[in-house]
Amino acid sequence: MAFDKFQLYGLLSWFMILNGLHHFYFNVKSHRLITCVMTSCIHKCWERKMSLKKVMKKLVFLEKQEFTGFKSGPKLRLRCYMKSLFVVITLIRIHFFYPTYMKRFSKDLYILDICSYWLLYNMLLAEVFAYYCVLWQTCRGFYILNLQLSVSRRKKKLLKLLQIYGKLLKLSKQMNEVYEYSGVFGCASKCWYQIAFGYEIFVILALPKSSFNAKLNMAMKVFIILTFILDAINLYLATDLADEFNKLREQTRRILRESRQFNRLVSIFSLQLCLYPERVMFLNVFAFDRRLTFTLLTKSLLFTICWLQGDYAKLKE
């Protein structure tokens, strides 16, 4: 990455603290995770979150000891730049443009609604982006290890690489377990936003003379359509990275299959590789991949149509 990813992780950790999601932050100078006393008491009851700090410590340690100085590859760098750009766009959208959108619904409780929405969306965005960064960091590790595995010719070096790979697999599984519930809730929230904005887009395009349209100016209509598109792209970028995780795992299998040296060592690790899910999974039920994006969009469209059918007579007025 052209910019210092540790600085990005530091800013993200402070963003998580401000929204009440973490009780620790990442110190850029010392590369350590430090407990924030003011927020640690809030997280006493979050038992699953308490293990997150330990897992992230190990992930930072692996990056510092084994992967520092290696390039991430053009695909991963592009994904990082794209996701970071869309996060910035989302922050600008929800803090500067969304208040105008919300004002037409509840003028009496406007300030309360906006503050509640800011807190809710900031928490959702911070949690999703944190998981994306963890998944990206894991993919970076797999990418670097695959490059080294493909050229390794010494048994000692190969053994070390496979040990590092095993640690990374274990961390990725633990991280998935920590984020599995928030991941499902995040996908559900995305689905709800797609339904709500899809409903309004249909009314804007199909019923231009309705009373609903009369309350919206052109700028607000553009905002609604762009928001729908941006949320869909954001979801796709996350699942696209998860698919890259799957491809890197498959690439590892191919490298090991083609390796004719140290067959016994490679066979043992291949068995270990089979113990871990081939895809990024939530709750051992949902496969986090591109198909999930299209499934959520399809279901959102279905529920939008059902909602429209119930309101059609009223919307025609």
From TrEMBL:
The keyword DNA repair appears for this protein: no
| Organism the protein comes from | Drosophila willistoni
Chain coiled-coil ranges:
none
Topological type in the membrane? Multi-pass membrane protein
Q: Which family does the record assign?
A: Belongs to the insect chemoreceptor superfamily. Gustatory receptor (GR) family.
Q: Which domain of life is it from?
A: Eukaryota
The organism's taxonomy opens as:
Eukaryota, Metazoa, Ecdysozoa, Arthropoda, Hexapoda
What keywords sit in the KW lines?
Answer: Cell membrane, Membrane, Receptor, Transducer, Transmembrane, Transmembrane helix
A Gene Ontology biological process in which this protein takes part is: sensory perception of bitter taste
Pfam families in the cross-refs: 7tm_7
Where is it found, in Gene Ontology cellular component terms? plasma membrane
Q: Which protein is depicted?
A: Gustatory receptor
- Matches recorded under InterPro entries: 7TM_chemorcpt (IPR013604)
